[in-house]
Specification:
Structural class: alpha/beta
Helix content: 40-55%
Bound molecules: ligand C2E, magnesium ion
Oligomer: single chain
Protein name: GGDEF domain-containing protein
Distance between the termini: 70 Å
Largest sheet: 8 strands, mixed, barrel
Number of strands: 9
Radius of gyration: 21 Å
Number of helices: 14
Strand order of the largest sheet: 1-2-4-5-6-7-8-9
Length: 280
Amino acid sequence: YCAKKSQPHLVFYDKAMSQAAELKLQLINNLRHAHSLKQFTLAYQCIVDLQTNQTIAAEALLRWQRSPTEYYEAANFISLLEETGLIVSVGQWVLEQACLQAALWRQHHQSTFRVSVNVSPLQLEHVDFIEQVINALTMANLPAEALILEITESALLRQPEQARATLNRIKALGVSIAIDDFGTGLSSLSRLGTLPIDSVKIDAEFALRLNEASGQKLYNAIIQLAQALEINFIAEGIETQQQKDIMTGMGQGFGQGFLFGYPSTVEHFTQAFFTQKCLA
Ligand code: C2E
Ligand code: MG
Ligand code: MG
Ligand code: MG
């Protein structure tokens, strides 16, 4: 106690540390019950064809309504779900929900509509993953071609040969594979060309630099790489018309970002993209 008293900064630091640790424990504790309390929901964000402006798909993004006043976006708690392993069961729920919703949208609004679902490395490595994908599709009566699974570069690096085998099995089902946050990881370009990948989602970080000539050159190089490998691109984080115009000039591809739509509830998404007449 005496030693601490003579080092006030250390005491303060300790306190701040333990408070942060306690908050994190509380958060984890709450997360453990969030699923059974039905506090998770999905927000959907449109993915748009840059040439035709048509909304062709939606990405499902996890949301946590922790209390009536606390609504969290995925960025704030996904890492905790991964740390605790909870992402495996929550991720399965996400997959099932998104497939059910996609089936409804296809049935009632747009028969070719697709849904894109984020997959954590832990899910991809799980022995039952392929079975879970098949179950989700079967339960929703959704054709495999309507589903896109988003996988990060880091997930492919952890156990490359196991990941390759899993991707091949996903592909054999007819499900598409997108590499998420493309350009921020360390994937080997030579390996990328040998994996059954349908598209790369170019990280929003690159869109931020489009106002500089060097940023545009870099963007163009990424798109050309994708084209050389015969892979589609989805430009993430498009917030301005200027960014969109630059990308549209670079080639046939897709875009996602606040310019086209914010992540939103099923009701809002349906109204905004399928029943526009009602808004007029
Ligand atoms: P992501 O897959 O790259 O998703 C895009 C993130 O960028 C989302 O954040 C979205 O809200 C945000 N965003 C969309 N358009 C724009 C834009 O124009 N500008 C900016 N600045 N941001 C934009 P969110 O929902 O917080 O998700 C963060 C990350 O959490 C996701 O990144 C994804 O990696 C992960 N995630 C989300 N839902 C799930 C899920 O169900 N399962 C797993 N395993 N991961 C998920
Ligand atoms: Mg994603
Ligand atoms: Mg992304
Ligand atoms: Mg991203």
